[in-house]
């Protein structure tokens, strides 16, 4: 037929006038694994927060607060955290190298920083070009040096994969290791829901191991061994042990002796260890010791070779720490102990996505290799990073103290990361009101908190929790402390209304 628009023929086609249009896709036409995947951090409560934000902009008098406080996600620059000047100055030169031909511009930047940008550009080329899928070799070498220095054990650039945040590393690993429902992944409960969501996408089985809340969210290695055996009896082969250290959402830090016990279980049962260490710089109490370091120590201590076959993938990211560069998608994965052919398959997966964002790769280098004392950019860098660390520490303890004054709320002292995960004792009335709305009791609490104060959090049910217990996960990134006072006032009212 000839198609005519406004009286003019546009084109001639073979379309028949008589065909009946097919319907649109509905959920039942979609990949059930995708439908099963849940991600509470951007779930029902945060979606409602966005509706309220729009409502607030349209009609400020329609809600009892003047802004939405996003305490639902560890996204520092969405709140008041400013990007570090050093990072952005180097990045600006990498993005637009011609700036370095302009003396006036060069004179406004610290000399060491301009030199750094020049050196990086020599190895990177243009940040607008695809890089090697494993990452720019020079930057991988820098990551390997950082790890060697951090742990006191050698790391090789061949074992480093630069990644688009830690999330893409998790996705490569789970895509490669999942063989379907008979493959089990040991994940902590509560956990960061990237893991359950990625397992759902891969139709693999989560084998939850519970963190012990009353003992600073510790892990009992013998319980892991038992889960492995029980799963085997049910026909599920445990394949992988996920450790999140420092923990999200718990904020707990694993002790080296616990890591050693867990590595012994991994060695005995052939579990690939994924060490999600994206919060390694966010430490308030105690010390972060990497899984790679403990594994290296065990290999040194036990010369029988028991630990030589342990396969470890350690992850880090530019999204957390004091960088907070979540949107730049920088990160790395270090592989230890994998067969060459398995590593080649991971490289193939990375190459399907071509390469991680090159500016994000550059940021990894800046994060792990900051200015040193004596360099012109050092003082400002130190001042800015110190201010961020101090603010996080202060807010974490203010919030922790506030929770422990609230009726029916108890909270473990934060050791690291960006979150608190207090437990809530909720009344029968809360259970009944929640049930009427088709919500879990902790989701109902979060919904009420949001509607009354604008504070957006995530219910513990989105992270997993011991049955019959209720929690709420909040970040302590929001500026100021007025919102903490608002929360206290809300809580008092909520408790009274639900007695
Ligand atoms: C424990 C943990 N792992 C991984 C990620 C993913 O971070 P990204 O992909 O931004 O590096 C997050 C983000 O909040 C996290 O909390």
UniProtKB/TrEMBL annotation:
InterPro entries: ALAT1/2-like, Aminotransferase_I/II_large, PyrdxlP-dep_Trfase, PyrdxlP-dep_Trfase_major, PyrdxlP-dep_Trfase_small
Required co-factors: pyridoxal 5'-phosphate
Gene Ontology molecular function terms on file: pyridoxal phosphate binding; transaminase activity
Domain Aminotransferase class I/classII large: 110-480
Coiled coil regions in record: none
Pfam families xref list: Aminotran_1_2 (PF00155)
Source domain of life: Eukaryota
Keywords assigned by UniProt, alphabetized: Aminotransferase, Pyridoxal phosphate, Transferase
The UniProt record lists the keyword Transferase: yes
Subunit structure: Homodimer.
Family affiliation: Belongs to the class-I pyridoxal-phosphate-dependent aminotransferase family. Alanine aminotransferase subfamily.
Name of the molecule in the record: Glutamate pyruvate transaminase
Organism: Ogataea philodendri
